[in-house]
Design brief:
Helix content is 39%, strand content 18%. The chain is of the alpha/beta class. It folds into 2 domains: 64 residues; 197 residues, Rossmann fold (3-Layer(aba) Sandwich). The longest helix is centred in the middle third of the chain and has 16 residues. One of its GO terms (biological process) is methylation.
Length: 295
């Protein structure tokens, strides 16, 4: 049987059809996702879609296939293969965490903590695609930035992104394979880091999540043991060793962990009083502190 060629459709009609499909499947931002997927297929920036244009049949077919996958709750970033953080764009493969908008706040805090420090040493623990480390290096070309992850898929993605950003002119970031809990990890930087950032897995095992995170992300990027704090505890211990006296630490976490982080940090004996921060939606999202001069 010979496949019939698809007819052209007006982008406006196609977007409305896509939005309806995504709304029915429970996607929380159906119009924005429909536009992002259309822009991806048509090769234009999302803000530059001409809704009055005709979309050729092969592009209609491609967009409908992507919308069907998004309706199955595959994350948008896994469909476009791209994500933005801190003014840069990175590649995200389907087996790697898609950087999230709230992490912009953590990045901004980290950059403000480095104001006045020349040639800072920065470590991004649990780096995933390395978006956070690369955005930091983009904003601070004088920084020596190290990024760590234990997942081979994340490391491959991070190394690809690091090579791309270096080729684009940013200061190269060094990507390390390692477990944050390994006592020998980055031992050559002990006591030298000016800033440690971490967006670790922090969801308690068994938590019911939206399918985007519960089903379509690697488990080790999302879940942090029974109380969600397994990797956070390791981050606290590693940061205590890496940071110089006065060095800054910022850890992203879940809403309910805002009261636990200060307790963990205080128990380590290595940090000043912690401060909790909220994200753009006013949800508790990350905690910061500074390394004490003497533990
Ligand atoms: C929530 S994702 C964050 C990725 C990235 N920082 C971001 O914001 O887009 C957490 C990452 O931590 C990594 N990870 C989990 N446990 C780890 C450990 N013990 N040591 C190092 N990396 C770990 C996962 O592989 C995953 O890439």
């Amino acid at each position: 049987m010979v496949a019939q060629p698809l007819e052209e459709l007006l982008l406006q009609d196609l977007l409305e059809e896509s939005e309806r499909t995504l709304t029915t499947s429970g996607v929380w931002s159906p119009r924005a996702d429909a536009e992002a997927l259309a822009a991806h297929v048509l090769g234009v920036p999302a803000g530059a879609l001409d809704t009055g244009r005709a979309v050729p049949g092969d592009a209609v077919r491609e967009l409908r296939a992507l919308v069907a996958r998004r309706a199955a709750r595959i994350p948008l970033g896994h469909l476009t293969g791209r994500a933005r953080l801190g003014g840069i764009e990175v590649t995200v493969t389907e087996d790697v965490f898609v950087p999230r908008f709230p992490t912009e706040r953590l990045l901004a805090w980290g950059l403000s903590a480095l104001a006045g420090t020349r040639a800072p040493v920065v470590v991004d623990l649990c780096t995933g695609s390395a978006a956070l480390a690369l955005a930091l290096a983009h904003a601070r070309p004088d920084a020596e930035v190290h990024a760590v992850d234990l997942d081979p898929a994340a490391l491959a993605c991070a190394r690809g992104n690091a090579a791309d950003r270096a080729a684009a002119g940013d200061t190269p970031v060094t990507v390390h394979a390692g477990d944050v809990g390994d006592p020998g990890l980055l031992a050559h930087l002990d006591g030298r880091a000016d800033l440690v950032l971490a967006n670790p897995p922090y969801v308690p095992v068994g938590t019911k999540l939206l399918p985007e995170w519960g089903e379509h992300h690697p488990r080790q990027a999302i879940f942090g043991g029974t109380d969600g704090l397994d990797v956070i505890r390791k981050v606290v211990g590693r940061a205590a060793r890496l940071l110089r006296p006065g060095g800054a630490l910022a850890i992203e976490h879940g809403d309910a962990q805002i009261d636990v982080l200060p307790v963990l940090l205080a128990a380590s004996g290595a940090f000043d009083d912690a401060e909790g921060h909220r994200d753009q939606e006013d949800r508790p999202r990350y905690t910061t502190t500074f390394r004490k001069a003497v533990a």
